[in-house]
Amino acid sequence: MKNRHNLDDWIVEAEIPVAAAQPDPMGMAPSSDPADISQDMNDPNVANMMQQNAPTEDPNNPEDVNQDPIAPDMPEPQNEVTDFEVWKNEYLKESIVGNSNELMDLLNQVRDKENLKPYQRKFVEDNVNIQLVRLNSNVDKASKEIRRQIKQQLDKNNPATSLVNHVTAVLETQPELNNIFIKLCGYTGQKGDLHRKYIASLLGGVQVGSGGNNEDIIYNEKEYSILVSTRFNSRWGDVMLGSWSLRSDDPERYLEEPELKRLQEGSPEEKDALRRRIVIDSIAQLFETRAFYINVVADDGTLFTFGWDIANSLRNAFVEGKLVVKTRVSGDSEAMIDDQGKIIPLMDISIAYVKETGQQDEEGKPETEEVEFMDRKDGMLFLTADLKLIREATVALQGASFKETPYTGNPSDLMTLKRCVYSAHDLLMRQC
Q1: What is the mean pLDDT of residues 359-382?
Q2: Which residues are CB-contacts of 110 (< 8 A; sequence separation ≥ 6)?
Q3: Which residue, of 40, 80, 400, 431, has the fewest CB within 10 Å?
Q4: Alpha helices, DSSP H only, in 112-245?
Q5: For the ranges 5-14, 167-176, 270-279, 352-361, which has the lowest average pLDDT?
Q6: Helices 268-286 and 257-265: angle between axes, nearest 10 degrees
Q7: Quick check: 214 and 10 in contact, CB under 8 A?
Q8: How crowded is residue 396: how many other Cβ atoms within 10 Å of its Cβ?
């Protein structure tokens, strides 16, 4: 499976040395009451016995205190973390077991260290918050069931679809957990990061990113890892996937030698077909290992969840003619200046879904139309399909799963849920 990564290939292989055990405080002799000691000293038998048992100094070999080291060697403190990457390696491996208490203990080993770099501290605090959510009994119950299903029924070729299917199936039985997605809508600019941590808590995953061009969460097992990218949008039609642009060496990366020759010397139709295939292969390669988990909440509280293994989905759909690459030049297109000072506009690239209209053409074949599915804007690639198109396309596309979970509560409670959030005052003025 191209989408899986072995954990030991992703992290630096190392082990934390075992520190020496500390003495058991329960094994220490209890201290005596001073009054009891004073009474014993008045007893001549006790006094004589203490004198007999007292150590005597050998006059021929007096103790030389000058030979003692100025700074005696002390054992290193237990659980001292000297290398963050070694510790991170241990944390990632421990996430396979998924015990929140054990993971919190590991996080607390480094949380108060003063020499952490900003990205290291962010890693620690992100995952502290994830484990705090997992300590909730309802979340813990759901997480255990989700992880059990993933281990037993994971589609390793399309991990995103498996994650969505298993998570939604479990949450359907716990409406109070589904309502959390409605609460997230009230956090506006913070909702993406909180959604990321909620998904990580349900999966028992480790947060390693923040919604950029790389994965956000890693779900670890002994044999494989799933790299998850999470998105939480207020609507369909503008879901950011990541930055992408064609590279000058892309033809050499994705075409064989005969194809490269046809790209230079072939017919206009051959050149056009090869250029479009390069675009698809370039995008697929960029997202080869990433499993997208996308959520949108409708105004009526319906939760829409889209799981998408982009690489497999794009390649298969392009070969089957369900997705086509479209190019255009407009006034808003990017441009460059050549050596002669001329402005050269660059082609805008989009990907359209080929859908049937329900009509027939003059030859009696089903009539089709091309509807925009993905678009590149300002160097970023977006999923621009609306809700209706995503519903339709998911049926035809491999590596895609779409779920709808209706809100089952009282409609009058929807606004209450959306406003059941911490305000800036709650966050900033909290007494700790």
Answers
A1: 91
A2: 81, 84, 87, 116, 120, 124
A3: 431
A4: 118-134, 137-153, 159-171, 175-184, 191-203
A5: 5-14
A6: 130
A7: no
A8: 15
* HSE value, Cβ hemisphere, 13 Å, CA-based, for 276: 20
pLDDT at 51: 45
DSSP class per residue in 31-74 = PPPHHHHHHHHTSHHHHHHHHHHS----TTS---GGGS-SS---
Please give the Cα distance from 303 to 402 (Å, whole number). 11
Contact 405, 174 (CB under 8 A): no
**pLDDT of 56 higher than 90:** no
Task: Report the alpha-carbon distance of residue 236 to residue 388 in Å, rounded.
Answer: 10
Closest to 98 measured CA to CA, from 220, 226, 223: 220
Tell me which amino acid residue 139 is: V
Among left, alpha and beta (phi > 0; psi -120 to 50; other), residue 185 is alpha
User: What tokens appear for 38 in the block?
Assistant: 């004073």
**Mean pLDDT in residue range 318-325:** 96
pLDDT for residue 29 is more than 80? no
Decide the pairing of beta strands 225-233 and 290-297. parallel
The stretch 157-184 carries a mean pLDDT of: 96
* 329: Cα separation from own chain's centroid: 37
User: Over the chain, what is the mean pLDDT?
Assistant: 85
Alpha-carbon gap, residue 389 to 385, rounded angstroms: 6
Asked if 282 and 318 touch (Cβ cutoff 8 Å), the reply is: no
What the block records as the tokens of 118 is: 């900003």
Q: CB–CB of 326/370 below 8 Å?
A: yes
Domain-wise residue ranges, the chain: 4-8+80-232+248-308+396-407
pTM summary value = 0.80
Beta bridge partners of 381: 242, 376
On the question of pLDDT at 18 being above 90, the answer is: no
Output helix, strand, coil percentages for the chain, rounded to the nearest 5.
45, 20, 35
Alpha helices in 77-117 (DSSP H): 84-94, 100-111
Q: What is the pLDDT of residues 211-238, one digit of tens each?
A: 888 999 999 999 999 999 999 999 999 9
